[in-house]
Predict the 3D structure of the following.
Amino acid sequence: MLERLSARIEKSWYQNKWWNIWLLPLSAVFFLLSHARRLWLTVIVKAGKNNKIPVVVIGNINVGGTGKTPLTCRLVELLNEQSIKVGIISRGYGSNAPHYPYALAQGESAVIVGDEPKLLRDRLDCPVVIGPDRNAAIKLLSEKNVDLILSDDGLQHYKMARDYEIVVLDANRKLGNNWLLPAGPLREGGWRLKTVDTVIFNGACNDDGMKNCMEIIPSAWVNAKTSERKTLDFFAGQKLHAVVGIGNPQRFFTTLDSLSVEFTPHVFADHHAFTASDLAVADDYSQQVVMTEKDWVKCAAFANENMWYLEVNASLSAGLETKLIKDLTALTETDL
C-alpha cells in the first residue's frame, strides 16, 4: 500500500495535479529545515577548500535521474583530450566498502562500491573515490595526481567547497509542479538555478532556442555475459523483457520504443540491489532480457548470454561543449 501511495505521489509531481496539496505542510517543514541548514553551511560556517585542485559539482535540484552519469563520462573524455587528468568523487550510494573514503580498483563489485561509481571507474579508467564525507574523499583523491575533480552529485552537500556548479534537468520533466519535497520533486527551489554556473537540459537539442543541451544517444547492444557488441537494430521487431532500476525508467522505455522493439517492463526502485531471481523473467513471450548499463554493473556476476545492456553516451550541443571546455580548462589554469 505504501509503495502504491509513493508511486502515486511521484507521478503527480510531473502531471501538474493538485492531488499532492495535502503534503504542502510537510514541504513547508522541509523548506525550513533545508533553508536553515543551507544558511548555516554557506554563511555562518562557510566551507573552505582543503586543497588547490578545482572541484566541479554535477548535480540537480530535483530527485530522480536526469543524466548526470553520462554527462560525467563525456566531461572526463573531453578534459582528457585537453591533457587534463580528472578524478571523480561520489557518495557511493548503496555501497558496502570496508572503509570510507575508499578508492576504487578496476573491476570491483557493485555490491561493494555502488552501481554508478563502478560504472564510472570501469568505463573511464580514471581515479574514483567514494564516501559520505566529500571533503575526506577530495583529500584522498588529491593524492592521485589529478588536475580537476568532478563530484558526481553533491550539489546540496554544502560542507564541500566547490569552484563550479553544473545542474542537469530533464527537458521534458523540468521542475515538475515546482513544489519542494514531498509535495513536489524539488530538493531546492527553482531560484537555485540562477546561482549555478551552467544549467544543462537533457533532451532539448531539437529545440532551436536551446543552447545548453545534451542528448543521451544509444550506441550499441552489449551482451551482459560475453561483452559481444551488436548494432542498435539487432532487436528491431523482436519482443524483449526490459528490466530497469533507475531514477527515470521512462527514459529507457522511450529509447526502446525508438529502437522499434516490443517489450514487457519490469520496474524496480532506483539503485535496486538486483538478485538472480529478479532477472528470471524469460518465458514464452521472450527469452531475451535487456537493461541499462547502470543496472548491468550490479548483475554482471549472475548474467547469462540472453541478457543485454544498452550502451549510451552523452552528446552535447556544440556551443555547450565549447563553453564547458573553456570554463573547466580555465579552472585548472587558475590553480597552477
